[in-house]
Amino acid sequence: MAAITAVKPTNDRLINDLNREWLVLSERTVPAALATSPALADCATLGDALDRLFALEGDDLDQAYLDVLEAYIRGGCDLAGRLMLQRMLGRAVYVAHRAYLSRGRGAITVGRNGNASFSDLLTSAVAALWRVIATYPIERRRARVGANIAMDTLMYFNREDDNGLDANPIDLTETLEDVHAPHNSAEIVDVLAWGVEVGIIRHADADLLARVYCPQPGECDGGEAVAVELGISYTALRARCSRAIKRLAAAVREGRYVAQ
Predict the structure, then answer these.
(1) Cα(90)–Cα(112) distance, rounded to whole angstroms?
(2) Per residue, what are the HEC states of 48-98?
(3) How far apart are CA 160 and CA 175, in angstroms?
């Protein structure tokens, strides 16, 4: 029998409850909607399927993710959604943990909750992950699926209750404004993920732009603060951001980007 893969337990009840639930679900037979996936066809149980998702890489992993999302979003298979949540649950823990540790750099605010506990942050992060899984645009974003889900989870986490942090109204939005590209952090993150997916910018550049324009709650706010944190000059940071933004703007002007 395959090992039952679970997220490392934390002091938070939510994750421990999800892990305990998974220990039961992992013994269930793979549903027919998932068995149609070539990557999961020989998996006997959901635990086997999760192990397979952890073992796959590259294009094979992307296709397996898409198969699982298809089964959940279009096929109505709830177990497929739960499988995807368990596979990506570590990302939600990471987002919440990173936000919690950033307390030393400023107050954390999440939606209307004011200064949030780690439990509050983790609940918000898991909710954001569920939202991303349930609404993933399967036809349009078929590459780097895991990275897309991770980035979108961060975006929704930052914007909880419509009181999350919006993007800084500087270079990125101003540069793209005249070509009907993003005007808020949700759209900005979508454009960044798209830019990585189609090879316009590198993942490292997208991560930098997200840190500058869509900071996590309590993280450095603004390019100068990010430059200090990264140990580079503000001029160097602006130059790197500018190059990536210009590539994105050119692609958007050419009509290659279609907003979700």
Answers:
(1) 25
(2) HHHHHHHHCCHHHHHHHHHHHHHHHHCCCCHHHHHHHHHHHHHHHHHHHHH
(3) 26
Domain boundaries, the chain: 12-104+115-162, 185-254
Q: Which residues contact 238 (CB under 8 A, 6 or more apart)?
A: 171, 223
Residues 137 and 260: beta-carbon distance below 8 Å: yes
pLDDT in tens, 191-220: 788 888 788 888 888 888 887 777 655 555
Q: Distance (Å, rounded) from C-alpha 217 to C-alpha 235?
A: 25
Between CA 26 and CA 221 the distance in angstroms is 42
The number of beta carbons lying within 10 Å of the beta carbon of residue 134 is: 13
Chain center to CA of 182:
18
**Global pTM value:** 0.61
The CA distance from 225 to 98, in Å, is 17
Low-confidence ranges of the chain (pLDDT < 70): 1-11, 102-115, 159-187, 215-222, 255, 257-260
Q: Is the dihedral of CA 119, 121, 122, 126 positive or negative?
A: positive
For 26, 44, 185, the CA distances from 172, given in Å and listed in that order, are 44, 48, 11
Instruction: Give the whole-angstrom CA distance, residue 210 versus residue 156.
Output: 13
Q: Please, what is the angle between helix 46-55 and helix 78-101, to 10°?
A: 50
Residue 236: CB atoms within 10 A of its CB come to 11
What φ, ψ does residue 74 adopt, rounded to 5°?
-100, -25
- Residue pair 32/67 in contact by the 8 Å Cβ criterion: no
